[in-house]
Amino acid sequence: MQRRFFPVSLHASSRTASFTACAALLSFAAPLSAQVSAQVSTQVPAQASTPTLAPVTVTGNPLGSSTAVAPADQLSGTGLVLRSQSTLGETLSGTPGVSSTYFGPNASRPVIRGQDGDRIRILANSGASIDASGVSYDHAVALDPIAVERIEVLRGPGALLYGGSAVGGVVNVIDNRIPREAVTGITGRADIGLSTASRERGGAALVETGSDRYALHVDMFDRRTSDVAVPALLACTKPGSPSLARRICNSASYVRGGAVGGSLLFANGYIGASATTYRNDYGTVAEDEVTIGMKSNRYALEGEWRNPVALVKSVKAQFSRSDYSHTEFEGATPGTQFRNSGGDYRVEVKHAKLGPLEGVVGLQGERTRFAADGTEAFAPYSRTRSDALFVYEEWAAGWGKSTFGARAESVRVESLGNPLVARFVPAARSFAPLSAAAGLAVNVAPQWQATANLAFSERAPKDYELFADGPHVATGAYEVGNAALGKERSVNLDVGVQWKRDHDTFHLSAFESRFANFVSLQASGTRVVGADTLPEFTYTPVRARFRGFEASGNVRLLQSPATLDLELRADSVRAINLDTNEPLPRIAPWRAGATLAWARGDWGVRVGFDHFATQSRVPTGDLPTSAYTLWTTSVTWKMQRDNWNALWYARIDNAANTLAYSATSILTQTAPGKSPLPGRNLKVGVQLNF
């Protein structure tokens, strides 16, 4: 099979122009900020001597309390700067319970507790992020970590608030493109980063201004990379590239975009809107001459009215519209084109305390229309409509907190056929998923807390799971949908314990998810497509179990005059097809890591490693992956001035230049040896806030 592509443009002249503009912005920002504002952007962490509030993870915690019953993490400030990679999946990979699908350095979704694809809900400011990344591993997420303020991860069943597609977890990418608070004068941020492995040149800038009546936001970002360096000689047939090089063939990329937004502020709330554009031209790495040209536009409207009437603390509503498309090119010839457009709405009403209870009642809906045209359109045109009613309640007391809630959905999935492909015919299915969950956090001792979460979740099958019928290059197979699929049902249990004393912390959680009818691609024969014979796989319901744990902790080794902390982490997940007693594919092996973090004044140094075990628990016919250890180190320096501050940083990823292959990447099976993890990479940069 041949795929058509568009060559990624990485011209030196445009790269130079981009960074000249970013440098000019940096030189302009400091004196400007000294004249108009003494406010420091909240994205940058304060000095060690400045007291800070504990971060509140809002995803899965709609009441904004400081205690989250469900396991959750967030990346922001220096932590996000030192973890940021070119994709969302790689940025989050290594956080507790999270790995990535790693389809090379340009396309990677998060994998949470062994589950990926449309069991992981990716949100933009708690609203839908509509793209085609859940359809195929080689499709990138239409969000870029370089342009965000905070990323929140909710592990475990998030279906209660965000739908059946969140049964594995939720990733919420948060920015301030719709300002929610007043801005005094002019504030902003500028980032510049350079790296060696991919020859990355990346920059982002945002400016905000306003008064007590309005707030405005503008941002832009641009990042260009070349083929990524690896510690192995790899073959390459792409014209103009060396036939043998220590780089991943066809892994260059060019990402750019920006947004404008604004809000009107009033005494009891705000209303705002934003428009965002995202463009990404990148190599797919599975095939040496295939690239993807992607574009996405998103428009959002959001507002909140606090204390509108008695017994109602707030009413919050958000609406968005997205238009996504990408074309796969070979040479200059366009091939298969994917389009996904639609919108979503979300309305939350937070009620005042009713006795010991306070909570949220909400409505959520989504409309999408998907189309694929070309020789590799493995799924028909389709239309999906979903609406849901949910309720979430909390009861807080001196002993701790309990949470419970329920969600009822109505989902309709339609195949609209395809006028050019006779095998796709019109069809429709309707589903009524129901979900319920309960959680408990108990203060068992002054420094100890125990948590437990139990959820029953139902997920409606996706359009491609029902109606696919065609060759899918990303999986190296001919995929066949199953129009008779029912709702995917699961029971999910999570228990945990955490301890905190001053700077010393410890957290351990264990989980188990059992699926009565986990929708899995199962071998069903072979299929001849032109001159090729492909293995055939059919979406089939099987009984499945996911089981594992996550552990993390911090030990303060030195307190004064410098601090020295030892950060520890480990996790493991095992997933099995209970019908065959075989492991499920693409499950991360157990891993453990540690980091020494030293800080004194404005300086910080981190040195750490993560060890990934051998993954030999694979289905029959799949290849195991070898163990490996990745070392990282970083140095940071915070420069504080009256009206601005800067974070200078240098970090080295894979410092030992270890050759490693990801157990969670489909490429490890379909193109063995072709796409290892990136080799040693030095990244230096600065983040300026004014």
UniProtKB/TrEMBL annotation:
Q: Where does the source fall among the domains of life?
A: Bacteria
- Please indicate if the UniProt record lists Transport as a keyword: yes
A Pfam family this chain is assigned to = TonB_dep_Rec_b-barrel
TM ranges: none
| Signal peptide segment | 1-23
Q: Which UniProt keywords apply?
A: Cell outer membrane, Membrane, Receptor, Signal, TonB box, Transmembrane, Transmembrane beta strand, Transport
Domain TonB-dependent receptor plug residue range list: 82-170
- Enumerate the InterPro entries for this protein: Beta-barrel_TonB, Beta-barrel_TonB_sf, Plug_dom, Plug_dom_sf, TonB-dep_rcpt-like
**How does the record say this protein sits in the membrane?**
Multi-pass membrane protein
* UniProt cross-references to PROSITE patterns, sorted A to Z: TONB_DEPENDENT_REC_3
Q: Where in the cell is it found?
A: Cell outer membrane
Q: Which GO terms describe its cellular component?
A: cell outer membrane
Q: Which GO terms describe its biological process?
A: siderophore transmembrane transport
The segment(s) forming the TonB-dependent receptor-like beta-barrel domain are 267-654
For this chain, one GO molecular function annotation is: siderophore uptake transmembrane transporter activity
Indicate the family of this protein.
Answer: Belongs to the TonB-dependent receptor family.
Query: Which PANTHER family does the annotation name?
Result: TONB-DEPENDENT OUTER MEMBRANE RECEPTOR (PTHR30069), TONB-DEPENDENT RECEPTOR NMB0964-RELATED (PTHR30069:SF40)
User: What is this protein identified as?
Assistant: TonB-dependent receptor
Organism ancestry: Bacteria, Pseudomonadati, Pseudomonadota, Betaproteobacteria, Burkholderiales
